[in-house]
Specification:
Largest sheet: 7 strands, parallel
Oligomer: single chain
Low-confidence stretches: none
Shape: globular
Order of helices and strands: EHEHEHEHHEHHEHEHHEEHH
Strand content: 5-15%
């Protein structure tokens, strides 16, 4: 299964030491992951992460001690983060073990942290969680555990999670965390699974999430297409960026495009869309060439 994951073309593959590993297999799983992560990443994978057991479980120290030795680990995923202290401990332990494992010829390799938000307590502590450590690079919403904590039932509309999802996105943005990863789509088989996944992706994108957890390879291309700028979005953004450069040359702070006002916030959004397209390996140059003569109206 580990070797099979190398064939994926994804932003991040997360290997699990928590729920998917039974108690008597924890030690073996740690060692297997350590050996596997000694191999360089496949070119089609941008990031490799490991989800350890929760801080306070009694398993987290051995998890971190073992996997942090791996030479090709990018990120640690901390589940059930309820307060900043959970991340303080993880960051301190991670920094200590990385320094301990470095050789005289090398500096400690960079490792980021992603925090899973799974409870009402975590939601109420989002501000301090987001400021807990410079290693924190994003938040992930764990809907099933959150529903269990609040004794609510997940429905197809996902409206019961609207407040939590909005709070997570807002907090991450307020603290300049680059990654906000939306809930798992539990329906994944057949045409119905694809439709539900697509709807959830666009719903999460509309709230401000910039990624989604996938539990099956068939979900990957749906998420990638949904969260990447569409051809129409990219063309609009490129037109704005190109026309704005000419507007600035003429000293115009606000102008129109297709009858709609364009000002600084809209230009900022357009630049973000272009940057996201580049991050998704979309050839922005084609659109730039097509609209190179765009003028502000």
């Amino acid at each position: 299964m580990l070797d099979k994951s190398r064939s994926l073309a994804v932003d991040c593959v997360t290997y699990d030491l928590e729920d998917s590993v039974t108690m008597h297999n924890k030690a073996e799983a740690r060692q297997s992951l350590h050996r596997f992560l000694a191999q360089p990443k496949a070119p089609s994978i941008k990031e490799r992460a490991v989800r350890i057991n929760a801080v306070g479980s009694g398993l987290e120290e051995e998890d971190l001690r073992e996997v942090s030795k791996a030479s090709h680990l990018d990120t640690i995923v901390i589940p059930k983060v309820n307060s900043a202290s959970d991340l303080h401990w993880a960051a301190d332990f991670l920094n200590y073990t990385r320094t301990l494992n470095q050789t005289s010829e090398s500096s400690p390799y960079p490792v980021n942290i992603l925090a899973l938000i799974e409870s009402a307590k975590a939601l109420s502590n989002l501000n301090s969680i987001c400021q807990a450590t410079p290693l924190l690079s994003g938040l992930i919403f764990a809907a099933e555990d959150f529903a269990f904590d609040l004794s609510i039932t997940r429905t197809p509309s996902l409206t019961e999670f609207l407040y939590a999802r909005s709070a997570i996105v807002t907090a991450a943005r307020a603290h300049n965390l680059p990654s906000t990863i939306d809930l798992v789509c539990t329906t994944y088989k057949g045409p119905e699974g694809r439709q539900v996944m697509e709807e959830e992706c666009f719903g999460g994108k509309s709230l401000g999430f910039n990624g989604k957890q996938c539990i099956h390879p068939d979900q990957v291309d749906i998420a990638q297409k949904a969260f990447a700028p569409s051809e129409e979005e990219l063309e609009w953004a490129v037109r704005v960026v190109v026309a704005n450069a000419r507007a600035e040359e003429r000293g115009r702070g606000a102008w129109t495009l297709d009858g709609k006002m364009i000002d600084a916030p809209v230009v900022g959004k357009a630049r973000v869309v272009v940057g996201r397209a580049e991050a998704c390996d979309i050839d922005v140059g084609i659109a730039m060439q097509k609209w190179r003569d765009q003028q502000p109206e």
